[in-house]
Amino acid sequence: MLKRASPTLLAICLAAGTAAAGALGPEWSDLRSPAWRDLRTAVVQEALPLHVLTFGAPLRRELARSLDPILVREPGSSARRRLERELAEELRLRRGEASPGAGAPWVDRELDPGRLRLRPTLDLAARWNEGTPPGWTDGPRLGLDGTLHLDSRVTLAQHLFVGRVPGGRRFADALVAHTDLLLLFESAFAGYASDRLELRAGRFRQAYGPGRSGGLLLSPDAAPIDQIEYALRGRSLRFRAMYGVLSAATDRRVAMHRLEWSPSERWLLGLSEGAAFQGGGAPNLYLLGFVPYTLVERVQGQDAVEPGGVDSVRNNVLWQLDATFRSARAGLFWSSLLLDDVATESSAMPSRLGLQLGWELAPRTRGWQLAVEAVKVWNYTYSVFYQSICPCDWVHQGTAIGYPGGPDLEQVELSLEQSVSEADAVEFRLLRQSKGEGRLGDPWIPAPVLGDRPTSSDASRLSGTVEQILRLECAYRHEPFGGLASRVGIAARWAENEGNLGAPWRLGWETTVRLSAHR
Length: 519
What we know:
Blueprint: H1 8-14, H2 35-44, H3 51-54, H4 60-73, H5 78-86, H6 88-95, E1 107-110, E2 115-129, E3 135-136, E4 141-149, E5 154-164, E6 181-193, E7 197-204, E8 225-233, E9 237-247, E10 252-261, E11 267-278, H7 284-288, H8 293-302, E12 315-327, E13 331-341, E14 352-361, E15 368-377, E16 395-396, E17 399-400, E18 409-419, E19 424-435, H9 447-450, E20 467-481, E21 484-496, E22 506-517
Antiparallel strand pairs: 1-2, 2-3, 2-4, 2-22, 4-5, 5-6, 6-7, 7-8, 8-9, 9-10, 10-11, 11-12, 12-13, 13-14, 14-15, 15-18, 16-17, 18-19, 19-20, 20-21, 21-22
Helix pairs in contact: 2-5
């Protein structure tokens, strides 16, 4: 397994020299870090711009640049003070303070060239369900974050970890026999960032849009993707594009781009497009990023007019339209519309859509935060039928790239949080979810293909036996200092037709414990 791990971090560790304080390059935020919750609160409270929520992973130094003058003028809520701890190093550098202080890395060495920084990470999460033994939720992990800052604009980064990876023995040699304990990396990339341009190449996560529980087109809960991306940032216009690989074995690729416009500090409008397709030939038009993918398919089809050639260059295109509005008194409002397919070819063809609506309020001085979000994803969404020629489902590692719950879903979530102090908070969450029998990889199939067994043409209704879940959770969160967070939650869960099987309502209890040491 060691031979399969990327050698970048291991090589630069051996070359570490003496400590120094040279320039630091760009670092991107972790979209799954506990600090992301406080970033969202700061946006609601008008301490950060709206595009922090909608335009991929923001740069940490850009967050410090926006937050610093507001912190000096108005320290504000507990969330802001936690962010000040999280971004302590970036804020010190911006203010010209040379002392290491909180947030300093475990190892900080100057190399020739560059500056190496290493930080240990930890992620432990366990769940106890009534009647079942305790188990790890996403695999326990002990990791090492390594960054090599070549100058103020260029960074090499890699996150290695040792942990249990579900199903890991299917694709790697385990560190301990008969276990899924592996040496692996969560992300690895080379990045460049200036005031107007970002470039990254490697393996990492991204997210598009304002959704609280996940994006409809691209969600931070999706597994990291091998990709190349660039972003252009202006005062009111921003553009981002990526090209990646979903499966090397089946040559499945993905391309996405997003255009945002902020006419004012209150409004943000976004348009995103994504395409899943099978590789083959030079992907120049997908790599460019600014050509609409629907037109790319047509142009490539024009080049493949021989019999059967047009079907071989088909893609699965999805669009997302979203709007975000912020008011000092009324809070944050957001809405997203996903267009997978709209019934235009025939009356029998169902529309496949996704809809997300939300509202969030976080008064600056009260310490509480209230949010509600409703999501509906139509059946057959994220999947497409092209006579089995194109494996173009919106799937990576068996899960959705888009909304984590997948298709055939209706969900409403209400959350209330009260900060007891800068380090402590209490959370209450109520989830109401209905899930039909539709699954990823089950597309709508036209009647001529199935003969007398056509699939339903109404994708807006939940299909088959509908699973109903009602979940109420109370949790306590403790963050003694930046980079360390713990959470304990107890939940009551009522379920009917669990697993889409006919079954009466049943009450179960669930306890979760999580400890994380992060950047």
